[in-house]
Predict the 3D structure of the following.
Amino acid sequence: MGYTRLPIPASMVLPMCFCGDPCKMEKSDEEETYRRRYWMCGNWAFDPPVQAVIRGVPEPLPLCDFEEWIDTEVKPEDRAFLEGCKEFDREMKRRIALRKKEEEERKAKIEERARIAALNKVEREIKLA
Ligand SMILES: [Zn+2]
Protein backbone atom coordinates (compact mmCIF):
# COMPACT_ATOMS: atom_id res chain seq x y z
CA MET A 1 0.00 0.00 0.00
CA GLY A 2 1.31 3.41 -0.87
CA TYR A 3 0.51 6.93 0.10
CA THR A 4 0.80 10.01 -2.02
CA ARG A 5 2.00 13.27 -0.57
CA LEU A 6 0.03 16.22 -1.88
CA PRO A 7 0.73 19.90 -2.32
CA ILE A 8 -1.30 22.00 0.13
CA PRO A 9 -3.78 24.42 -1.48
CA ALA A 10 -3.25 28.03 -0.36
CA SER A 11 -6.82 28.14 0.99
CA MET A 12 -6.15 25.40 3.52
CA VAL A 13 -4.72 25.99 6.95
CA LEU A 14 -1.94 23.58 7.70
CA PRO A 15 -2.72 21.98 11.05
CA MET A 16 0.00 21.42 13.62
CA CYS A 17 0.57 17.98 15.06
CA PHE A 18 0.62 17.62 18.86
CA CYS A 19 4.40 17.19 18.59
CA GLY A 20 4.60 20.81 17.42
CA ASP A 21 5.51 20.15 13.80
CA PRO A 22 3.20 20.92 10.87
CA CYS A 23 1.23 18.14 9.24
CA LYS A 24 1.52 17.07 5.64
CA MET A 25 -1.40 16.21 3.37
CA GLU A 26 -1.52 12.71 2.03
CA LYS A 27 -3.90 10.71 -0.07
CA SER A 28 -4.90 7.14 0.62
CA ASP A 29 -4.31 4.44 -1.95
CA GLU A 30 -6.16 1.83 0.04
CA GLU A 31 -9.39 0.45 -1.30
CA GLU A 32 -11.65 1.35 1.62
CA THR A 33 -10.48 4.95 1.70
CA TYR A 34 -9.44 5.36 -1.92
CA ARG A 35 -7.99 8.81 -2.70
CA ARG A 36 -9.40 10.31 0.50
CA ARG A 37 -7.11 13.07 1.69
CA TYR A 38 -5.87 13.24 5.27
CA TRP A 39 -3.48 15.10 7.51
CA MET A 40 -0.52 13.26 8.84
CA CYS A 41 2.28 14.31 11.13
CA GLY A 42 5.18 15.60 9.00
CA ASN A 43 7.49 13.37 11.01
CA TRP A 44 5.69 10.21 10.10
CA ALA A 45 6.37 8.22 6.95
CA PHE A 46 4.42 5.06 6.28
CA ASP A 47 6.65 3.51 3.71
CA PRO A 48 10.10 2.42 4.85
CA PRO A 49 12.89 2.65 2.25
CA VAL A 50 12.77 -0.25 -0.22
CA GLN A 51 16.32 -1.34 0.68
CA ALA A 52 15.31 -1.64 4.33
CA VAL A 53 12.37 -3.87 3.41
CA ILE A 54 14.60 -6.08 1.23
CA ARG A 55 17.18 -6.49 3.99
CA GLY A 56 14.45 -7.06 6.59
CA VAL A 57 15.62 -4.11 8.66
CA PRO A 58 12.86 -3.04 11.05
CA GLU A 59 11.63 0.40 10.18
CA PRO A 60 12.32 3.17 12.66
CA LEU A 61 9.36 3.96 14.87
CA PRO A 62 7.44 7.06 13.82
CA LEU A 63 7.93 10.01 16.13
CA CYS A 64 4.20 10.36 16.45
CA ASP A 65 1.20 8.97 14.72
CA PHE A 66 -1.14 11.93 14.30
CA GLU A 67 -3.59 11.36 11.48
CA GLU A 68 -6.85 13.09 10.62
CA TRP A 69 -9.14 12.61 7.66
CA ILE A 70 -9.85 15.65 5.49
CA ASP A 71 -12.27 13.89 3.15
CA THR A 72 -14.90 11.88 4.97
CA GLU A 73 -16.04 9.90 1.96
CA VAL A 74 -14.57 8.42 -1.19
CA LYS A 75 -15.60 10.64 -4.13
CA PRO A 76 -18.07 9.01 -6.56
CA GLU A 77 -15.65 9.44 -9.49
CA ASP A 78 -12.84 7.84 -7.48
CA ARG A 79 -15.12 4.99 -6.50
CA ALA A 80 -16.11 4.53 -10.16
CA PHE A 81 -12.45 4.52 -11.17
CA LEU A 82 -11.67 1.92 -8.52
CA GLU A 83 -14.59 -0.24 -9.66
CA GLY A 84 -13.29 0.05 -13.21
CA CYS A 85 -9.85 -1.14 -12.07
CA LYS A 86 -11.40 -4.06 -10.23
CA GLU A 87 -13.50 -4.98 -13.25
CA PHE A 88 -10.41 -4.84 -15.45
CA ASP A 89 -8.57 -7.03 -12.95
CA ARG A 90 -11.40 -9.59 -12.91
CA GLU A 91 -11.44 -9.64 -16.71
CA MET A 92 -7.67 -10.20 -16.86
CA LYS A 93 -7.92 -13.07 -14.36
CA ARG A 94 -10.79 -14.58 -16.34
CA ARG A 95 -8.75 -14.42 -19.55
CA ILE A 96 -5.66 -15.92 -17.89
CA ALA A 97 -7.77 -18.77 -16.46
CA LEU A 98 -9.34 -19.36 -19.87
CA ARG A 99 -5.95 -19.43 -21.59
CA LYS A 100 -4.66 -21.88 -18.96
CA LYS A 101 -7.67 -24.15 -19.51
CA GLU A 102 -7.19 -24.06 -23.29
CA GLU A 103 -3.51 -24.88 -22.87
CA GLU A 104 -4.36 -27.85 -20.60
CA GLU A 105 -6.91 -29.12 -23.11
CA ARG A 106 -4.38 -28.79 -25.92
CA LYS A 107 -1.78 -30.76 -23.91
CA ALA A 108 -4.36 -33.43 -23.03
CA LYS A 109 -5.22 -33.82 -26.74
CA ILE A 110 -1.55 -34.22 -27.67
CA GLU A 111 -1.09 -36.82 -24.92
CA GLU A 112 -4.20 -38.67 -26.04
CA ARG A 113 -2.93 -38.73 -29.63
CA ALA A 114 0.46 -40.06 -28.47
CA ARG A 115 -1.27 -42.73 -26.38
CA ILE A 116 -3.38 -43.89 -29.36
CA ALA A 117 -0.33 -43.90 -31.63
CA ALA A 118 1.55 -46.06 -29.12
CA LEU A 119 -1.39 -48.47 -28.88
CA ASN A 120 -1.62 -48.70 -32.68
CA LYS A 121 2.10 -49.45 -32.86
CA VAL A 122 1.77 -52.28 -30.34
CA GLU A 123 -1.20 -53.65 -32.27
CA ARG A 124 0.76 -53.60 -35.55
CA GLU A 125 3.70 -55.36 -33.90
CA ILE A 126 1.38 -58.09 -32.56
CA LYS A 127 -0.12 -58.61 -36.02
CA LEU A 128 3.32 -58.83 -37.61
CA ALA A 129 4.58 -61.31 -35.05
ZN1 LIG B 1 3.85 14.92 15.08
